Prior knowledge:
It is found in: Mitochondrion outer membrane. By secondary structure, the chain is mainly α.
Amino acid sequence: xxxSSCVRAMVSGKxxxxxxxxxxxxxxxxxxxVLLSDAAKCQSVEAFLRFxxxxxxxxxxxxAEFMSPNxxxxxxxxxxxxxxxxxxxxxxxxxxxxxSSELHLKSQEKAEMMAYISLVEKCFLPAELxxxxxxxxxxxxxxxKYGSPYPTPLNIILGYKKQMSVRNQLRAMNWHLKKEExxxxxxxKGCQALAEKLGGRKYFIHDLPTELDAVVFGHLHTILxxxxxxxxxESVVKMHKNLVNFVARILKEYFx
Length: 256
């Protein structure tokens, strides 16, 4: 059912036009199995939807990753469109003209915003993946959670298969040979850069929250709030009071 409208759109060659579709669903991994990096992506998308005041129906599924056309989560079903993963979903919202960055930012500010989003993607995401799947204690928990919806021995097979996939992803990022101390140091540099950029301001680029605020919030909130086997990443974030306050402010203004 989820792919039927998308298939019809491909056959007809038509895409969604106009404003925000009346019927939109956001599919995310079930909260009992979602891991650190995927939780951060989902929280980033959730934040941006709230920034833009865009209504969605939230769906949680234990096989959300396998429902996605590209294996990325979360998955947005919006009329005939089926964007999956944070980049595709943010791009979809931008093309609809509902992003504050499209409405209010100058070209130079947009370029700066994209540069800092790239920083997060090249620093925070690989650090989360490395800790979740390469740190011995974290990896045991990650394999267990990832495979938990499935019976034995499928759960074990899928857990190790996912671990190999992530390690290949880290290899493509040139992070596979890093020691854990180097990973934490890279994460520290990323947090320091963001803390300096934010300074005492409410948001990173503009007086309204943008995609950058959503992406940073998603990662920082997930690191601060979700249980982890140790505080390797959490303790780094807590070194920057303005980043912690930023997360608390977004929670208060958009999630309560």
